[in-house]
Amino acid sequence: MEESDMKKGHRARHSGPKAEKKKAKNKHEQNLTARQRNPRAFAIQSVNKAAKAFRRTADIKTKKQHIPKVDRSPTEPPPIVVAIVGPPKVGKSTLLRCLVKNFTKQKLTNVQGPVTVVAGKNRRLTFIECNNDINCMIDIGKIADLALLMVDAKQGFEMEIFEFFNICQATGFPRCMGVLNHLDLYKDGKAVRKRKKQLKNRFEIELYKGARLFYLSMLVNGEYLANEVHNLCRFISVMKMIPLIWRASHPYVLADRMEDITNPENIRQNPKCDRTVSLYGYMRGTHMKSKSMVHIAGCGDYAIKDMTFLPDPCPTPQMEKRRSLNKRERVIYAPMSGVGGIVYDKDAVYIDMGTQKAEEDKPSELVAALMESLKPVDEKMRESQISIFKGGPAISGSDFERKRHIEKNESDDDEDDEEEDRDSGMEAESSEDEDSDDNKEDIEDDSE
């Protein structure tokens, strides 16, 4: 009885179609990590290690916390000022031209003064090059929202970079990004990587940990590589600017155009007379009173006579549905460089030459003069007169034609006379020949 109750145990199949189906159902368990399959084995082993990890995460969170600052910029903010700073012969002008070309697809040959471009739906950028002058660095350090520090990879950080750092510490530190240039002077790839690491560490020591440093490897046809410039422009377009309290509470203007409207008669009488100057630019900071005193860098304090609100010469695109800029919406405004049309006071009338329209060929001046003439050319030739000698009689075209006609008639008469003489001579010869033939016949008859 006991032997009949004993049953054979179940043996699961490890191969075959059924075993393969079961393995396929539980396949996700094999993809799990060891910590996910057995979390108890990876529990906290060291209290000190766990405390360090907790403190690290807390530090990262608290670094992002800051006191909120009031942004006084209007609904349509003025362009962001991007200053290009660096020692001489490092490639500042070339970088400025490449940045403008990336945003507007236009080439600038002669760059003078600020250049304003549209970088996005709600962002405009004003590029300005900083000279190697301490006064220029002080002025640009006060107004720049973003500074691009050009560094020569062969020379390293030079005196101009450290001077600009010290100036910004006193006037208000803007956002800074480094641009490493002249990397093509290193032929070995290992030396290039080593130099990049050295300069990046030094740049982070001077500014802060994690400061951005971009690399421009080489020049091709006088321009930097398009993908490297595009990468730099992309970071500039999305970068968030920190509003500085001093700038937000004081009005200031970066003049991008200047006109001398002094009476020319006063200048003619006294070249050293007081001038009346009109300055144009975007208002930044707070509102400015119309009769307040202003300070012009390098000149002194002056009183404002009149202040007028003008339409925006470089507006942002108004199409909200589009996420990218159209080619026609890529606007550039650089009046000192001769780009952006001509603006008249208080009217904002632009004179832009249409690039898409083909210029018509100008008609020839000779053909136009002939078309305007009322008389034909033959009559004008007959009426025209010319004097060969001074004080002599004038010969007209009709006299010349009359004389020419008379000479032609005389020559025709002479030719007729010659032909008649020639014909008479030929007749005389023929008569003589006939006489000689008759004589010969008579002689022959006599002989017979």
From TrEMBL:
Q: Which GO terms describe its biological process?
A: endonucleolytic cleavage of tricistronic rRNA transcript (SSU-rRNA, 5.8S rRNA, LSU-rRNA); maturation of SSU-rRNA from tricistronic rRNA transcript (SSU-rRNA, 5.8S rRNA, LSU-rRNA)
Domain named Bms1-type G: which ranges?
A: 77-242
Q: Which SMART domains match?
A: AARP2CN
Which interval of the chain is the signal sequence? Answer: none
Q: What is one cellular component GO term in this UniProt entry?
A: 90S preribosome
**Any idea where this protein resides?**
Nucleus, Nucleolus
Ranges of compositional bias, category Acidic residues: 410-422, 429-448
Q: Where is this region: Disordered?
A: 1-43, 387-448
The alphabetized UniProt keywords are: ATP-binding, GTP-binding, Hydrolase, Nucleotide-binding, Nucleus, Phosphoprotein, Ribosome biogenesis
Gene3D superfamilies, per the entry: P-loop containing nucleotide triphosphate hydrolases (3.40.50.300)
What the record says about family reads: Belongs to the TRAFAC class translation factor GTPase superfamily. Bms1-like GTPase family. BMS1 subfamily.
* Composition bias type Basic residues, residue spans: 8-26
A GO molecular function assigned to this protein is: ATP binding
Q: Which domain of life is it from?
A: Eukaryota
The reaction(s) catalysed by this protein are:
GTP + H2O = GDP + phosphate + H(+)
Compositionally biased spans, kind Basic and acidic residues: 399-409
A Pfam family of the record is AARP2CN
Q: What is this protein called?
A: Bms1-type G domain-containing protein
